[in-house]
Amino acid sequence: MQNKQSYLSEITKTFRTNYDRFFEIVRNTHQIKQMPTFQLNYFIQQTLENNFPITIEFNDQDNEQTGYLTKLSADRYLLTSDDNHFTRIVKLSEIKAIRKY
C-alpha cells in the first residue's frame, strides 16, 4: 500500500511539474519584445500621416488597444477607438509595440 501511494504521489508531482512547464512556455512565446524608440517614432509618424488604425501593446498591460492616434505634444498622443467609446492619452514611454490594425 505504501509503495502505491509513493508511486502515485511521484506521478502526480511529475504531471504537475510538466503541466506548469508546458503552460509557462506557451505564455512566454506570446510576449512581444520592446520596439526600439526610433522604430516607434517611425510607426507613429506613418500613422499620423496616413491616418490608419493601429494596435498598441503597452508596457504595463497584457491586453492591446486599437484605434486612431492624434498628436497632443512632442511625446503624448490621444488614442481613440473606432466607435469613439474609448480614449486614452498615451506617452511614448508607455508603448511596447505598434502594428497596423
From TrEMBL:
This is DUF2642 domain-containing protein.
